[in-house]
Specification:
By secondary structure, this protein is of the alpha+beta class. It has helices spanning 15-27, 29-32, 45-53, 65-81, 96-108, 112-125, 133-142, 147-151, 157-172, 194-205; strands at 7-10, 36-39, 180-183, 186-189. It has a single domain (7-205), classed as 3-Layer(aba) Sandwich (Glutaredoxin). Its EC number is 5.99.1.4.
């Protein structure tokens, strides 16, 4: 069996994934071009029911107040260390399919990287609500894609099926959080594990 390409799982929801993305693109672009990129998100009720019927359980757990407060402090510290100016977004009615399924469409059209950059900027630097289809439509326009197609991706049955396949992939890979990096049998979880992943990938592709 052929060895799978190195890969990383990202989420637009996670500030740690945003910082890992920034680090990856700023300092390790050669590795970014050698790996596969997979989205990770919490499914809505419909997708959750489909996954349950297929015997797929995803490792989501409720966050305690103490952990939430720690993350607020930790993220501010990490952003400051990187010289990043961030805005903590307010998610009133998050629908993560809106942005992550739109990514699948953008990636199919060859503009996945541009879409990721624009969504991360909108969420973590401008404080926009990426669960709002209008925000996704605006991002699509800015990167030269059909705003209607991307902003309605979450209602397209074919795209939703692809979304289920993506969630099944993270289930099979044993992904339990983001950012999550995999190279062969080696797994790396967390933004602070990115250097180890980079070294692993470079050691066998140099």
């Amino acid at each position: 069996m052929a060895r799978r390409r190195p890969r990383w799982y990202f989420s637009f929801r996670s500030p740690y994934a945003w910082m890992a993305y920034r680090d990856l693109m700023a300092d390790h672009r050669d590795v970014a071009d050698r790996i596969d990129w997979f989205p990770f998100w919490e499914p809505d009720a419909e997708a959750g029911d489909r996954l349950e019927q297929a015997g797929i359980s995803l490792p989501y757990v409720a966050m305690s107040k103490e952990k939430h407060l720690y993350i607020l402090q930790d993220v501010r510290r990490l952003a400051r260390d990187r010289g990043l100016k961030m805005v903590w977004p307010v998610d009133r009615e998050p629908r993560w399919e809106v942005s992550h399924l739109a990514y699948l469409v953008a990636d199919e059209l060859g503009r996945g990287r541009e879409f990721i950059a624009a969504v991360y900027r909108a969420r973590w630097e401008e404080g926009q609500d990426i669960s709002d289809p209008a925000v996704i439509a605006g991002i699509a326009e800015r990167i030269g894609l059909d705003p209607v197609r991307l902003s309605t991706a979450c209602t397209d049955p074919a795209v939703r099926e692809r979304g289920l396949e993506a969630l099944d992939s993270l289930h099979r890979d044993g992904v339990f959080g983001v950012p999550f990096f995999i190279d062969g049998y080696e797994k790396f979880w967390g933004v602070d594990r990115l250097p180890g992943f980079v070294s692993s990938v470079r050691s066998r592709t140099s």
